[in-house]
Design a protein that fits this description.
Layout lengths: L4 H8 L7 E5 L2 E7 L5 E7 L4 H14 L10 E5 L6 E5 L6 H6 L7 H21 L4 E2 L8 E3 L5 E3 L6 E2 L7 E2 L11 H6 L1 E2 L1 H17 L15 H10 L16 H17 L10 H8 L1
Antiparallel strand pairs: 1-2, 2-3, 3-5, 4-5, 6-9, 7-8, 10-11
InterPro entries: Kinase-like_dom_sf (IPR011009), Prot_kinase_dom (IPR000719), Protein_kinase_ATP_BS (IPR017441), Ser-Thr/Tyr_kinase_cat_dom (IPR001245), Ser/Thr_kinase_AS (IPR008271)
Protein name: Protein kinase domain-containing protein
Organism: Selaginella moellendorffii
């Protein structure tokens, strides 16, 4: 649906600062209420930032091609002014990142595993069911939104790529978030589906450990969660990794965590060809 600028101003009370949900390099997201009473999230690009506006248009292209319960839904856009606006379903429970790293509440292991599985469902859909396939390119816990039932909704397709049919990779400039970027992509500038697999492996580690993907309070060699966790997994000390806030450590839970940690280790192989597909990862998580 195409929205008018006047509708967007009414929805956000002229982009009132107390309705801001978040701000980033892309612009600002506001909570809004449409004329019919629907609560939405409205993303507003930064003024005069041509690359960011291009990312907005890219997001419109991608989201108009997909439909999956674990992908955030775009309801429409407003392109009346130089600054485009995107309108999404409102996802009320924040991001996985906030639940793992900022909030006082602790997600149970059962909820963490389900959120990881639902995220894998979304990525498997993008890689194997979307036509053409889509590489997300910025898989991270802050791009996994949670609804009122803590159902995962993967968001932010500003730097995602549509993949030509029968292509195995795309040569492209480096984009992504430190701590999550596929090191092979970092070297070769060749983006593949396995780049998303690597990033998802880091998300799995966050889910297990409750630790940040990059943490400068860890010793120099362990700043990156992937490096730190891989060494622990390789020496078979997975129990040391488990988030201390997770209690009820039954033998069944510990066995499940060990399996998921070993799956993360597969996703984090340096050589992309040694990593599993998202389809395999999803089957293992189920």
């Amino acid at each position: 649906r195409i929205f008018t600028w006047a509708e967007m101003e009414r929805a956000t009370k002229c982009f009132r600062s107390d309705l801001k949900l978040g701000t980033g390099s892309f612009g600002t997201v506001y909570k809004g209420k449409l004329d019919d009473g629907t609560t939405v999230a409205i993303k507003k690009a930064n003024n005069g930032n041509a690359p960011r506006i291009q990312q907005f248009l890219n997001e419109v292209t991608i989201l108009s091609k997909v439909n999956h319960r674990n992908l955030v839904k775009m309801l429409g856009c407003c392109i009346e002014r130089e600054v485009p606006l995107l309108v999404y379903e409102f996802v009320p429970r924040g991001t996985l990142y906030e639940h793992l790293h900022r909030r006082g509440d602790t997600l149970s292991w059962k909820n963490r595993l389900r959120i990881a599985t639902e995220t894998a469902e979304a990525l498997t859909y993008l890689h194997f069911a979307a036509s053409p396939p889509i590489y997300h390119r910025d898989v991270k816990s802050s791009n996994i939104l949670l609804d009122e039932k803590l159902t995962a909704k993967v968001a932010d397709f500003g730097i995602s790529k549509l993949v030509p049919i029968d292509s195995t990779h795309i040569s492209t400039t480096l984009h992504g978030t430190p701590g999550y970027i596929d090191p092979q992509y970092q070297q070769s500038y060749q983006l593949t589906d396995k780049s998303d697999v690597y990033s998802f492996g880091v998300v799995i580690l966050e889910v297990i450990t409750g630790q940040m993907p990059v943490d400068f309070s860890r010793c120099a060699s362990d700043k990156n969660l992937s490096t730190f966790a891989m060494s622990v997994i390789q020496r078979g000390a997975i129990s040391e990794l488990i988030d201390k806030r997770l209690d009820a450590r039954t033998p069944e839970m510990l066995e499940c965590v060990a399996k998921v940690a070993n799956l993360a280790a597969l996703c984090l192989q340096f050589d992309g060809s040694s990593r599993p597909t998202m389809k395999f990862v999803l089957e293992e998580l189920k």
